[in-house]
Records
---
Amino acid sequence: MEPKISLCMIVKNEEQNIRRCLKSVAGAVDEIIVVDTGSTDATAEIAREYRARVHFFPWNDNFSDARNASLDLASGDWILFLDADEELAAGSGEALRRLAGGDAVDGYFVQIINYLGSEGYLEPCADLVFRLFRNHKDYRFRGSIHEQIVDVILEKNNRARYRAAEEIVILHYGYLDRQIAEKGKIDRNLTLLKRELAATPGNRLLRYHYGVELYRAKKYKEAAEQLLQAAQGIDPQTIYLPKLLRHIVLSCYAACEYAPALDIIRQGLELFPHYADLYYYGGMICFDRGEYGRAVEFFQQALATPGQPVYFASFYGVRGFRACYQLGRLAEMFLNEDEAMRYYVLSLRDNPSFLPALESIIRLLRPREEPAYAKKCLEQLCDFCSPGAALLLGRMFFQQQAYVPALEYLERGATEGNPDGEISLYRAVCLAQQRRFLEALRILDSFHPAQPLYPLARMNQLLCFWWQGKQRKAKDLAKELFALGLSPDTETVVTLLIGTPGKGKPEAAPGEGGMALLLDILARTLDLGENELASRLLEGLTTDCRRQNAVAVGRIYHRYGYLDAAEHYLEIDRHEHPDCAETLSLLAEIKEKRQEYLAAVELYQRALAVDPGKPQHYMRLIRLYEKMRQSIIQKAEQIFPGPDDAHKILQEAAEK
């Protein structure tokens, strides 16, 4: 006779999850026991739809009591326990039936995939958990939270044997950001764990869980203290030790306690020399400390590690796309764009959903300057045939101010369902930046006052008229915007756009939000080639305001190739902040582009003196010296023409 399996659950207000869970066990279990600890939603009704036996149990801040109430009702030979925010993965039901038919073991550790993050981007993290065991009246859970039964079974039956059954897979969604926020899990767990620890201070496993919850609560120093205490004198064979070590490292890292974190990594790698997570986080710490060579070694070692045991609960991608991405960032810091591109491509191929790698690839392709080349490269790398993928790429091009390819992909991905008008607004901006003002205005005019983006649409209409010199229409739109009740900062910027600056003392000094808007308008104005309009806009600012925002303005002028204006504003900032490495480096780049090499060398050297930890300054200086060397050789060849091997002689002399 085939063994009978009972599914035992405890639930509370799980109407959003329980249907998925119960649907996944159809045919895999013989009975469903649901203990409800106080739901006020449709949880119990949904459970009954799946023929569950629902039992109500007053919540008493003790998970074991509730779990044991479900065990008391179970009549099966085996107990499977799940939470409502979990489900059995496809194919696990057959494995469950097969394993329950054996008689060699008393329980199974099964694989669980914890999904982290948000529903828009899920990150899986695998682990082993004890979820299937024989039904015996003496086998009952212990502990008010993070309840355990493994040790209890061994206490009751010292011949009990366990096995890992990784072919049974549980998918867990309870660590998603929304789930945690809605249920207040962290605060609840901290309260229960603290109380339990007060009663059993020597319980190492509880202290580990307490430290993990403190980490989730962003109490990093407290978390590190508790986790270190849990690790003192621990048996190296303890199954959760790798996870404990990783959480100590994470807590120390988040608390900026880098030296202790690296010491734990060193000790951990002595015990687990192939633990990818420790190499990866060692790389992150060294990256933050400016120890770039060591960071590269750590990340490369993470890539070289073999497959991780499930009980390591290794973080998704640390031996793949994440390590590649960090190596790409490091290569960029040393201005090695070819190497950076190689690593970003490897990262994206390992995980096509990893957007930071795609964003970095797009940035390196410089789509604003070379849109056709960037588009060709990306279409060779990725498939953007679906509307969603096209919209994603359109947004990324938009962020890089590459308005021509952005418009193409936004239109390719546009659908009728765009209730908030975001894509329509993006398309209108792209059209305006190509001077297709009539088409842009037609889209912007379709927005109605009930839409959240209506004020932004009207602002863009105003800009279209302003760029065309249609001041009267711009003023009419400004009146409408004022009537909508703008923030004081936005009102200041609108006033600047429709005013006549330059006469008398300037008076406008927008706050932080207003300056962000004004700088965006400045960039778009320069993108259109309207340098005079941009200058007039900035003239409306007070002298102090221009001085305080000089580096940001200079950066924008530099990005769009207006070197004289960029130099003017950067010199203003240099006067105010003579030790700003960014300003010195940007000024050096301008001098270099003008072939004023000695002035550029001096500025790069000053940037190095101010910020010696940034490799970019060294690399730019090295490249400049090489450029100067080649320039000198060319001049020498012009002055001393000779036989065909003159160039070779000069090169050899230069190298000596």
---
Amino acid sequence: MFKIIYRAISTVVVLIGATCAVYAQKYPIDTLQYQGTDKKVVNLVILADGYTQQEMGAFHEDAKRFTDYFFKTEPFRQYTNFFNVFAINTPSKESGAAHAGTADDCPKVEHGHKDLPARFNDFPKRIAVPEAQPNTIFGSSFDNYGLHRLVIPQKNDVIEKVLADNIPNHTQVVILVNSPFYGGSGGKYATATVNASSNDIAVHEIGHSFAILADEYWAGNQYAIEGPNRTQSADPKHVPWRHWLGINGVGIYAYGGNNSPAKWFRPHEFCKMQYLVAPFCSVCQEVFVETIHQKADPIAGTKPALDTQVDAASVGLFALKLLKPSPNTLRVKWFLNDIQIASDLDSIYLNPGQFDVGNNVLRAEVRDTTTLVRTPSKQIYSYEVKWNINANMEYAMRLPASTWGDTLETCYAGYQALSMKQPEAGVQYNWYDSVEGKTPFAVGTNLVSPKLTKSTVYFVESVWKGKKSDRVPISVEVLPQIQAPKNYKVEKQKDGKTVTITLLEKADTRYSFLWKKMDGTVLYEWDEFSDEYVRSGKFNNVMRLKIGDGEKHISVQKVDNEMTCVSAPLIIEIK
């Protein structure tokens, strides 16, 4: 197992004086992911350090590579849609990162690599690192606090100025340092070099800065404080993660066997807060989900806007723009004047006749039911929006409308589906076979007729709390019956290998024939030249079959190529 080999220095802030202009400094911004708004969304901001102006293309590639890696990590993969990602192109005068060569663990032995390629994201971490002092915008440097791999940006005031001038409503910051050597750090800003393994450092550090997670390796007494994934109590009834005990490897594990580590406990033995190569354990994932919900709102927008005065006479569509997890665990409920009228729909339609005289309240309630959360006190991710709708009079129920109008066609002895256009939430649709029928024979937004052999008229009405609209007629016109083929001949070929069936029908390009086995499988014509079954021509009144395929009977139907209606089947015996 690869134990994490650095400590997160989250309590130490190192400042090197930098002169900043008082005016705002704007930089080009690459939008790597955008949800249509930067409000109520987690705004992940990536900054460049040690990239010259000529290397901004490489920064874009590195930022995209990190973003892809980040969103492959759970639970961020499931909650990708809750994030915007912006990469601020902050060029440096010189390339790379500072390296004084003073740390005791500084790699000074080469492993066969003499030259460093310009872009190399999988460079071995143990290789001779040249001493350097480049002039970079944020001053990121190795060799901090005696650890070579601890890379920290030194010019915090410059970082804050860049963020304030460009994306002041940032949520989480990641600084990519243009060095192929392994390193990074945490704290307020997650920092990582562009060595491939450094992506894990940045994601681990986001656990600290974004979700306030504790290290699950022993970093020292100064970090021994209570947290969602670290506690000094081993009582199963009181550990913060008690609702996860026994699930997905979650238990109560001591940091060590003696002294201080023996008195503190963590929830898992293989979590990214301990080992870089590990996934986040279930306890940490739950905290991430909770934090995402604290910083974001899945209801990203509404239609109409919430500050719009809605009049009952012109009421129509109400819609939510939702940031959905994948798989989608959001559940939606709609209430009109506290009566539930719909569920699990992003949008609904309303009928003016549904409103009481005066003010009406339409409310949409959205709740995340993710199984990544088990702690009852954290299962409260509910959001709601409300519209006030004024009705200055009592309105009649609006007439129902069919999706395809008031007249539909169907084939003889066929079915027809009659669907309501923009069905209104909470409204009941009653179907009758006469305009004065007393009892509906069907209820719902969709009606499938029985087999029809003559044209029929159905009637439908809208109903809300006993209030009914007039009935609307919908006609179903039955098309003329297609006569099945009658005359045919069956001939066994001289070769004794095939049989030919010929329908004695006058050629007409409007019609073709559908040949089938008795189990319904479509038949194709046997082609002796290619020794296989092939599709027939347009007027396929001839069928050649290979003898010995086991078929004693087949069926054939006449097909209207314009209307796609078919006749009843003709059954042919193969002798």
